[in-house]
Amino acid sequence: MLKSFPVVATDPGVTRQVLSECPELMVVAFRFAHAGAEGKLHNHLHIQSTYVESGRFRFSVAGEAVEVGPGDSFVIPSLAMHGCVCLAPGTLIDAFTPRRADFLDPSDL
Hints:
Layout: E1 7-9, E2 14-22, E3 25-32, E4 38-42, E5 47-61, E6 64-68, E7 73-76, E8 82-97
Antiparallel strand pairs: 1-2, 2-3, 3-8, 4-8, 5-6, 5-7, 5-8
């Protein structure tokens, strides 16, 4: 079933929108409006796969830095500290397993 989810501001210059979800999996678009916008360092229990749809980003994953661009993809293990800085505006498509219930309104669970 198709469902529309709201666009949510997360950090300055960054928005998040759930694209699809079920208890075992969630797909989310993170849009970065300008260079310098950040996805602050954090960690979570979920395994995350990130696909760079557009733009350029410098990621830190478990203390290792890497620069990524369109078409690049990688996996972030459970509990790994990670974050990114936008180098050129663009969109990241993240998949989480299991879903990030914290990204949903409780009525959607």
